Structure formats: C-alpha cells, structure tokens
C-alpha cells in the first residue's frame, strides 16, 4: 500500500496544473483560484482534525511535548509567506505557458534543495551528487531550448523558476519544524496561513471575483480536494509505510503525470529534445534519492562477525 499511496499522491499533485487550465477556461481568475483553493483546503483539514483525533497525535520520532508558539508561528508563516508566494508564482506562470513545460521547470526544486543544503552545511556534495546536479542542469537547459516559440513564454518561464526557488526555501524552513508537529496539523496550519494572506490581499485590492459559473467551482473543488488535501494525506500515509527515500523517488513521477495528462486533455506536446531533458531532470533527482538510501542502508547494515584473528566468519547456510 505504501508505494501505491505515494503514486496516488504524485498523480494528485500532477493533475493540479490540468485542473488549473480548465478553471481558467471556465472564467476563474488566478486570484480567485488561489483564495478558494487554500480556504477550502484549510476548512477540510480542520474538519478532519475535529472529527478524527488520530491525525493530531504525534508520529514516532516526533517531539511529544506541546509545540511552542515559535513552532506554531513558523508553521503558519510557511503558508502565509512561502506557500502563498509559491502558488501565486505557479498559477501566474500557468496563465502564460503550457502545463507540461511549467511542471518540468518547477521540478528543478529538488536539485535546488540539494544545492542549498550543501551550502548551508546540512549535506555534502559527493561526486555522484555532483554528476546528478550536472545532469539536472543540462536537462533543464534542453527543456528550455527545445520549447519552441509557441509554447515557451519568457515571463512564464521566469515565474515558474521563481516558484521552484520559493518552494526550495519553503522546504528548507519546513525541515526545521516538520518533526515538531503531526503532519495533518502542520498541513492545516500551512493552509490556514496561506488562506489568511490571500484573503487579506483580496480585501486590500477590492475583493476577488467569484461570479464564475458552476464549471469553475467544480475545477476549484478538484484542485482543493484532489490536488491539495488528498495529495497531502496520501503522501504522508505513504511516507509512513515506505520511508522518505522511496516516497521521494515515487514523487518524481509528478511532472510525468502532468505531461501525460496535458497531452491527453489539453492537446499539448513536448518535442523529443524536451522529453530527453525532462528524463535527465527526473533521473537526476532519482539518483540523488537512491544514493541517499544506499548510504543509509550501508550505515545500518550489521558488521560481519569476525573470529579471534580478525577474519570474517563463515555464515551458516
């Protein structure tokens, strides 16, 4: 069930750009999409916490004490500043460019996280990791060079990369509080913070137009329920069963899902050069995660038994 849940999560996140395109076609503005998405997601997560006490309990390895005000404030700020900004950049880029190309540019963020972690002293840059980063950079370049004039939008590409950078900062900050709060509680606080920021922005700018027709509400509900709440919950459920390395590897299929759905529903397509670049990006992220898992297994493997002379003993068959 663990790998299946992770794949469901990747599919849910990967469908978000497609739902967003359909919402735009139904007359939904980017501002309305973001406000309704986070408000509805926060409400749904709040209902889950009220009706089911289980998600409020700490997981193994989490701090059992009452979270401090600083931890709670950081969780809310992750949504109010980080996630709100990342989502704003993402959906603004989606308004200008193809969903498939946007997904491939956004998915440079795992490489950016690795580079930032090295610079911050949280990790070290091994030769294998250096090769993976080089492959990812080359893959992103191929994606951009092979875009063609019709699908490539410079401002859209800049917004998409800005979303990747913002999400990188979001992950690095979230890493400091993720073990202090149960996953659903953290998700609810993040969604509440994002909804608060977008709601305040709507009040300051004269409000958000919510007068679109029923199809627009349907696609917004899909984004909030499928690509936000369901995506988060299935990922955390899969993470508990598979561990972080396997969950991260399976999550690299998210842009593949977006590209496939875009080809099926929106008539978008990627050139062979773009496909090759996308494959490099995805494979580099997978290599980074696989190497991390291999090193962890090597550290946890028991040392072979040795005799008095220091030679390995034979294993019983």
UniProtKB/TrEMBL annotation:
<keyword id="KW-0472">Membrane</keyword>
<feature type="transmembrane region" description="Helical">
    <location>
        <begin position="33"/>
        <end position="51"/>
    </location>
</feature>
<feature type="compositionally biased region" description="Low complexity">
    <location>
        <begin position="302"/>
        <end position="311"/>
    </location>
</feature>
<comment type="similarity">
    <text>Belongs to the EamA transporter family.</text>
</comment>
<feature type="transmembrane region" description="Helical">
    <location>
        <begin position="185"/>
        <end position="205"/>
    </location>
</feature>
<dbReference type="InterPro" id="IPR000620">
    <property type="entry name" value="EamA_dom"/>
</dbReference>
<feature type="transmembrane region" description="Helical">
    <location>
        <begin position="217"/>
        <end position="239"/>
    </location>
</feature>
<keyword id="KW-1133">Transmembrane helix</keyword>
<feature type="region of interest" description="Disordered">
    <location>
        <begin position="293"/>
        <end position="317"/>
    </location>
</feature>
<feature type="transmembrane region" description="Helical">
    <location>
        <begin position="158"/>
        <end position="178"/>
    </location>
</feature>
<feature type="transmembrane region" description="Helical">
    <location>
        <begin position="71"/>
        <end position="94"/>
    </location>
</feature>
<keyword id="KW-1003">Cell membrane</keyword>
<keyword id="KW-0812">Transmembrane</keyword>
<protein>
    <submittedName>
        <fullName>DMT family transporter</fullName>
    </submittedName>
</protein>
<dbReference type="Pfam" id="PF00892">
    <property type="entry name" value="EamA"/>
</dbReference>
<dbReference type="InterPro" id="IPR037185">
    <property type="entry name" value="EmrE-like"/>
</dbReference>
<feature type="transmembrane region" description="Helical">
    <location>
        <begin position="100"/>
        <end position="120"/>
    </location>
</feature>
<feature type="domain" description="EamA">
    <location>
        <begin position="156"/>
        <end position="288"/>
    </location>
</feature>
<feature type="transmembrane region" description="Helical">
    <location>
        <begin position="132"/>
        <end position="152"/>
    </location>
</feature>
<dbReference type="InterPro" id="IPR051258">
    <property type="entry name" value="Diverse_Substrate_Transporter"/>
</dbReference>
<feature type="domain" description="EamA">
    <location>
        <begin position="2"/>
        <end position="144"/>
    </location>
</feature>
């Amino acid at each position: 069930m663990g790998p299946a849940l992770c794949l469901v999560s990747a599919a849910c996140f990967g469908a978000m750009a497609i739902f967003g395109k359909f919402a735009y076609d139904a007359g939904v503005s980017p501002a309305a999409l973001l406000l309704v998405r986070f408000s509805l997601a926060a409400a749904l997560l709040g209902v889950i916490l009220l009706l089911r006490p289980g998600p409020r309990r700490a997981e193994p390895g989490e701090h059992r004490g009452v979270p401090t005000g600083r931890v709670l404030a950081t969780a809310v700020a992750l949504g109010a500043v980080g996630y709100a900004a990342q989502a704003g950049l993402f959906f603004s880029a989606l308004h200008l460019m193809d969903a498939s190309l946007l997904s491939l540019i956004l998915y440079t963020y795992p490489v950016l996280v690795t580079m930032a972690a090295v610079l911050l002293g949280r990790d070290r840059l091994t030769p294998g990791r250096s090769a993976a980063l080089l492959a990812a950079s080359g893959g992103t370049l191929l994606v951009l060079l092979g875009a063609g004039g019709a699908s490539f939008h410079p401002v859209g590409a800049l917004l998409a990369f800005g979303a990747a950078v913002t999400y990188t900062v979001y992950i690095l900050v979230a890493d400091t509080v993720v073990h202090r709060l149960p996953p659903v509680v953290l998700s609810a606080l993040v969604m509440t913070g994002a909804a608060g920021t977008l709601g305040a922005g709507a009040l300051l700018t004269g409000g958000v137009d919510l007068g679109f027709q029923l199809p627009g509400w349907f696609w917004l509900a899909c984004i909030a329920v499928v690509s936000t709440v369901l995506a988060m919950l299935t990922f955390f459920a899969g993470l508990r069963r598979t561990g972080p390395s396997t969950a991260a590897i399976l999550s690299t299929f998210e842009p593949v899902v977006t590209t496939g759905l875009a080809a099926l529903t929106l008539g978008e397509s990627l050139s062979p050069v773009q496909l090759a670049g996308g494959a490099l990006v995805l494979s580099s992220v997978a290599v980074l995660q696989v190497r991390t898992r291999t090193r962890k297994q090597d550290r946890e493997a028991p040392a072979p038994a040795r005799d008095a002379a220091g030679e390995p003993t034979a294993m019983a068959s």
